[in-house]
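dumping this here so i dont lose it
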């Protein structure tokens, strides 16, 4: 039995168009959201107050080499703030440690009260703090970072949330409703429903090649549908 190629191609093209068309609609809608909402809003820049850049009198601080010597294998020393206090952060094999920059004394990890105060100072909104929790398992919105970290959630329709390092009190993330919608849209856009980061996953490749095959079949059907002149009989 001879294969009826036009019929086979037309049916295959129809079903491919149905499957790829659904994903094409998702690509369009999610892409539109990612274009319409400014990336600075997605990043949550509007949630954070400008950082107080008042300089410290370095002559009154202990030498960084002094605190670095107390951490075997120290790789980096940085001067930063913990609330209004200048501190030396020393990164070592066991993670970062904080030292009082004025005395050189070792500081304990920031407490829940200090984390809450730091979050309130950074947050640019009017909402009060709803909860402060130390998380040992990362929620979906913080899968890219390794726990533990402090989660500080504020009241408001967008559920603004700040995340802080339990070792240094530094802010390591900020999330809100528009960011969460963006993250969901990004998942649909790249078709990575697990980690939401692999832009070369099998599903996306299959959808891309299906769209290409559909286009080739459509072009063939378009050419085949034109009437062809029959040669005159001799």
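and the seq i came up w/
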């Amino acid at each position: 039995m001879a294969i009826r190629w036009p019929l086979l191609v037309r049916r295959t093209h129809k079903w491919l168009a149905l499957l790829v068309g659904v994903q094409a609609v998702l690509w369009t809608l999610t892409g539109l959201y990612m274009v319409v909402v400014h990336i600075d809003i997605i990043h949550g820049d509007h949630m954070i107050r400008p950082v107080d850049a008042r300089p410290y009198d370095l002559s009154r601080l202990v030498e960084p080499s002094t605190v670095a010597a107390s951490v075997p294998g120290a790789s980096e020393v940085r001067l930063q703030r913990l609330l209004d206090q200048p501190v030396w952060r020393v990164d070592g094999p066991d993670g970062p440690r904080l030292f009082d920059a004025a005395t050189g004394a070792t500081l304990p990890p920031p407490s829940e009260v200090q984390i809450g105060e730091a979050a309130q100072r950074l947050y640019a909104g009017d909402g009060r703090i709803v909860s402060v929790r130390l998380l040992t398992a990362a929620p979906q919105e913080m899968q890219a970072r390794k726990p533990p970290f402090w989660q500080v959630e504020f009241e408001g329709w967008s559920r603004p949330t700040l995340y802080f390092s339990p070792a240094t009190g530094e802010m390591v993330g900020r999330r809100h409703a528009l960011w969460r919608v963006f993250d969901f849209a990004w998942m649909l856009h790249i078709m990575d429903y697990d980690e939401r980061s692999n832009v070369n996953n099998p599903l996306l490749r299959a959808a891309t090649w299906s769209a290409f095959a559909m286009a080739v079949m459509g072009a063939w059907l378009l050419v085949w549908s034109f009437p062809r002149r029959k040669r005159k009989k001799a």
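Helices lie at 5-36, 39-43, 64-68, 112-122, 177-190, 202-225.
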